[in-house]
Amino acid sequence: MLSSEINKRPGSSNDQLSLDFTNNSPVSTKTRIADSVYDITSGKITFHPEKSEIGENSFALKISYMGRSYSLKGVYKKEEIRSFHQKDFSETTVRIIRFDSILAFRDGRYISALLPPKNFNEITKNIQGILSDYCRNIMIH
Hints:
flat
């Protein structure tokens, strides 16, 4: 929001215009949810929740990894771990069953990507974290 104010300078015939460019607009609910729920678990990966879909047992996610955009589609399974000693305590974790497609953005389109095992494992670990956070948030609300 832009606001302006004219200040009179004492002892001078010149007025001084001051402009305030601070952004006081409210942050959208979707952005706030995305920031709090979808924590990025690695410095190399950026998750784009506004371009992603998470279903009951499938996902289609957009991420940026090491300077390249990827589209990942696959199937996951929720596993509930209950405490033997505390009957009311349970933890939901996610296990990725399979990736249906891993596409990298190159030359204006997405093409099949073959990742080295180290990079594939890092992406898998981070996607499991994103899906686990999503499932926990759904259960809380």
